[in-house]
């Protein structure tokens, strides 16, 4: 019987079901959120300061998918103006800054997880949530997020974080809409997490 | 005379530019993981008021970056006109944001 006490429990590995890649590394706690906020702000500032563009994630994912689309359905790409902009003619969808930021995020996240002993095979879920069902909800949630991110021309990184820092009105409206949507639905899906 | 942002493509296109973005992404992913954003349960706990890490990190980052960007502009180091500011599409932003919020709490990321 597992009871949910605090999120700190979620941080500590339950040892039995999880496979740790490097056993020598002790699992460390996450850093202070305010310190993390300042560090993230410095990274975001440096991105703007050096390159002129902020950070992004969904745009890179989008372009990686367009590569696949262009390979299996090039006719569809040629008929869709939105896709044509990225993959039309001799354009390579990977020739974009956001693709490289996205690849960097995966590498950076992996290295931090490894340094702090958090690399493991696990399924993050609430104590009452079956593993298989969690994979289904992860997929459904991901589909909503992908659709919403393209609809709004950006995700929590590209719109909320980057647009928020340079005071774009649309980005702030987007950010409050994301939190409103999630808070409004949270009570009804509490069995997923609590 | 503003120096920044750097005209990267004039220096070392294209692979050097990709490398710069790769390093920025690396730092981004590194900080996100350190903050606990790799843990869906921690992210979802935000919406049950049990762990406000997401709000603290996001708004901390926005305010820090904002102060640095506008300070650098005021000091004449950064040309704000060359910075990408997301154009406002109000209703697509709100509707897309609500859809993303739904995905956020169902998917946990």
What does this structure look like?
The complex is a heterodimer of chains A (about 190) and B (about 110). With about 190 residues, chain A is an all-alpha fold. Helix content of chain A is about 60%, strand content about 0%. In chain A, strands 1-2 form a two-stranded antiparallel ribbon. Chain B has about 110 residues and is mainly α. Helices cover about 65% and strands about 0% of the residues of chain B. Chain B starts with 7 loop residues before the first helix and ends with a helix. In chain B, about 50% of the residues are buried. The model of chain B has no long low-confidence stretch (mean pLDDT about 90). The interface between A and B is large, with 104 and 82 residues.
Number of helices of chain A: 9
State the helical fraction of chain B.
55-70%
Question: Residue-averaged pLDDT of chain B, rounded?
Answer: 92
Strand content of chain B: under 5%
Query: Span from first to last CA of chain B?
Result: 42 Å
β-strand amount of chain A: under 5%
- The run of helices and strands of chain A is HEHHHHHEHHH
Strands in their spatial order, largest beta sheet of chain A: 1-2
Given helix and strand content, the structural type of chain B is: mainly alpha
Unreliable residue stretches of chain B: none
What count of domains describes the coordinates of chain B? 1
The end-to-end distance of chain A, rounded to whole angstroms, is 13 Å
Q: What is the subunit arrangement here?
A: heterodimer
Radius of gyration of chain A: 19 Å
Instruction: Describe the largest sheet of chain A.
Output: 2 strands, antiparallel
Instruction: Tell the overall outline of chain B.
Output: globular
Alpha-carbon Rg of chain B, integer: 18 Å
Q: Name the structural class of chain A.
A: mainly alpha
Number of strands of chain A: 2
Topology order of chain B in helix (H) and strand (E) letters: HHHHH
The greatest interface between two protein chains, and residues involved on each side, is:
A-B, 104 and 82 residues
């Amino acid at each position: 019987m597992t009871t949910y006490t605090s999120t700190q429990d979620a941080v500590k590995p339950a040892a039995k079901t999880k496979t740790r890649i490097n056993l020598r590394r002790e699992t460390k706690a996450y850093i202070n959120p305010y310190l993390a906020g300042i560090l993230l702000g410095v990274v975001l500032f440096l991105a703007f300061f050096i390159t002129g563009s902020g950070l992004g994630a969904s745009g890179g994912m989008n372009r990686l998918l367009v590569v696949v689309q262009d390979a299996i359905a090039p006719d569809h790409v040629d008929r869709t103006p939105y896709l044509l902009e990225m993959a039309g003619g001799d354009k390579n969808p990977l020739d974009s800054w956001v693709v490289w930021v996205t690849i960097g995020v995966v590498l950076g996240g992996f290295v931090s997880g490894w340094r702090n002993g958090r690399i493991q095979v696990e399924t993050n879920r609430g104590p009452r949530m079956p593993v298989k069902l969690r994979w289904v909800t992860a997929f459904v949630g991901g589909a909503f997020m992908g659709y919403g991110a393209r609809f709004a021309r950006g995700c929590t990184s590209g719109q909320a974080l980057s647009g928020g820092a340079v005071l774009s009105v649309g980005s702030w409206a987007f950010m409050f809409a994301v939190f409103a949507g999630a808070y409004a639905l949270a009570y009804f899906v509490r069995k997923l997490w609590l | 005379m503003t120096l920044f942002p750097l005209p990267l493509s004039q220096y070392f296109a294209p692979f050097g530019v990709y490398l710069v973005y790769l390093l920025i992404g690396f730092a981004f992913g590194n900080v996100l993981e350190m903050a606990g954003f790799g843990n869906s349960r921690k992210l979802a706990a935000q919406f049950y008021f049990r762990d406000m890490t997401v709000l603290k990190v996001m708004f901390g980052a926005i305010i820090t970056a904002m102060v640095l960007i506008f300070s650098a502009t005021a000091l004449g180091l950064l040309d704000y006109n060359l910075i990408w500011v997301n154009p406002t599409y109000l209703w697509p932003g709100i509707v897309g944001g609500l859809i993303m919020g739904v995905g956020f709490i169902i998917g946990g990321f």
